[in-house]
Design goal:
Strand order of the largest sheet: 1-2-3
Strand content: 15-25%
Structural class: alpha+beta
Number of helices: 3
Number of domains: 1
Number of strands: 3
Helix content: 25-40%
Shape: flat
């Protein structure tokens, strides 16, 4: 028997209704080992304690749209060196037909 253990992290961007966003995006980050998960965890801890302590002090969650470009580029640079996979679904809300339920 083969047991495969994966950690999945999901995040979405945009809104489901007729809000301001043109797209609704769901992204899943797939981490396939404890070793890679620990690297990812250390990335966030080091950013919070050292490199971006001031910028991330009052943030529970690191949000791309509110983070300075320096933080985004740093994260991308580190993540690109990890053995991770990602999958995204992009929905153009202009092509979706909404049906009122109730």
């Amino acid at each position: 028997m083969i047991i495969i253990k994966l950690l999945l992290f999901e995040d979405e961007s945009g809104d489901l209704g007729y809000g301001d966003s043109k797209y609704f995006v769901i992204t899943i980050l797939i981490v396939n080992s404890n070793k890679e998960y620990r690297k990812l965890e250390k990335l966030v801890l080091k950013m919070r304690k050292n490199k971006f302590k001031k910028e991330l002090k009052n943030q529970k969650e690191i949000k791309s749209y509110t983070s300075p470009e320096e933080i985004k580029l740093h994260m991308i640079d580190i993540i690109n060196n990890l053995d991770l996979k990602s999958m995204s679904i992009f929905i153009n809300k202009n092509t979706v037909k909404y049906k009122k339920i109730l």
